[in-house]
């Protein structure tokens, strides 16, 4: 008697592959902005990529890997060409492999791999194969998709010198600083007035990172010459300016979304940083 094999359920949102049109900025593609997921994308065109507290350059072609809560900002330096993007949850690979074991998904690892035109054609073929598999009416299709995604990962690792593939002990200070910046950046951008940032104070970050507040502060001070409070305040101020310029929310809504107890505390904070009140700043930005 042959019994049927129960396949792990694929919940909508666990995996998605899309073709990215040739637009000036990849983040205009909504799935790319999803947080809490892994992303693999292929790019053609000069770009500056800002992530956490680092910057990377793409001269011609590259494949890029993103782990959960790592937020990227693209700064196009020329004409952009169509590409591919796949996004998936950790659960998608559950019971198959531990996706976090691969070097490109580890903290402090460089997520950008420059590739040649021939290598890009090979990666494009893999993405196209993934796209075809997803469209099939086949109970095992996501097993095939996992194999193809792993092929993307392994083919990328083959591009690196052997010494780069060895497991290395990452400097603890660098690792902690990277985790901090990922947690901080992972709260932005704020796109909905009902969303409120929760990691607001040094103690919040220390608790999330399982370290003492003083240890986190010393680590960040050593790496950035700024205190935890300064780094948080600078990022909140940057987001405040963005919300004032791009959202029609009132000052009270912006203050709440940025974690301030009330509007007066936010106004005082903003005036100290900018020299003017939020409303006056909004008028200047509009003008």
Automatic annotation (TrEMBL):
<dbReference type="InterPro" id="IPR020449">
    <property type="entry name" value="Tscrpt_reg_AraC-type_HTH"/>
</dbReference>
<keyword id="KW-0805">Transcription regulation</keyword>
<keyword id="KW-0238">DNA-binding</keyword>
<feature type="domain" description="HTH araC/xylS-type">
    <location>
        <begin position="204"/>
        <end position="284"/>
    </location>
</feature>
<protein>
    <recommendedName>
        <fullName>HTH araC/xylS-type domain-containing protein</fullName>
    </recommendedName>
</protein>
<dbReference type="InterPro" id="IPR018060">
    <property type="entry name" value="HTH_AraC"/>
</dbReference>
<dbReference type="InterPro" id="IPR009057">
    <property type="entry name" value="Homeodomain-like_sf"/>
</dbReference>
<keyword id="KW-0804">Transcription</keyword>
<dbReference type="Pfam" id="PF12833">
    <property type="entry name" value="HTH_18"/>
</dbReference>
């Amino acid at each position: 008697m042959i019994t049927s094999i129960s396949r792990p359920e694929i919940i909508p949102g666990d995996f998605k592959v899309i073709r990215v049109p040739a637009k000036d900025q990849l983040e205009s593609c909504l799935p790319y902005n999803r947080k809490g997921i892994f992303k693999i994308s292929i790019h053609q065109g000069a770009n500056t990529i800002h992530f956490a507290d680092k910057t990377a350059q793409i001269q011609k072609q590259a494949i890029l890997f993103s782990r959960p809560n790592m937020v990227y900002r693209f700064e196009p330096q020329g004409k952009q060409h169509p590409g591919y993007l796949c996004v998936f949850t950790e659960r998608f690979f559950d019971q198959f492999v531990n996706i976090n074991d691969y070097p490109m998904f580890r903290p402090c690892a460089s997520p950008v791999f420059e590739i040649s035109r021939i290598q890009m054609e090979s990666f494009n073929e893999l993405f196209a194969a993934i796209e075809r598999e997803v469209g099939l009416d086949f109970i095992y299709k996501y097993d095939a998709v996992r194999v193809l995604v792993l092929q993307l990962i392994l083919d990328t690792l083959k591009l690196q010198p052997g010494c780069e593939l060895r497991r290395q002990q990452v400097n603890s200070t660098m690792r902690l600083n990277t985790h901090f910046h990922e947690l901080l950046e992972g709260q932005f951008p704020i796109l909905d007035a009902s969303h409120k940032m929760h990691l607001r104070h040094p103690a919040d970050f220390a608790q999330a990172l399982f370290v003492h507040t003083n240890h986190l502060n010393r680590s960040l001070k050593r790496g950035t010459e700024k205190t935890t409070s300064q780094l948080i305040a600078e990022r909140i101020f940057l987001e405040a300016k963005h919300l004032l310029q791009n959202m029609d929310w009132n000052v009270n809504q912006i203050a709440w979304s940025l974690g301030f107890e009330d509007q007066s505390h936010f106004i005082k904070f903003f005036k100290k940083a900018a020299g003017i009140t939020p409303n006056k700043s909004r008028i200047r930005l509009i003008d």
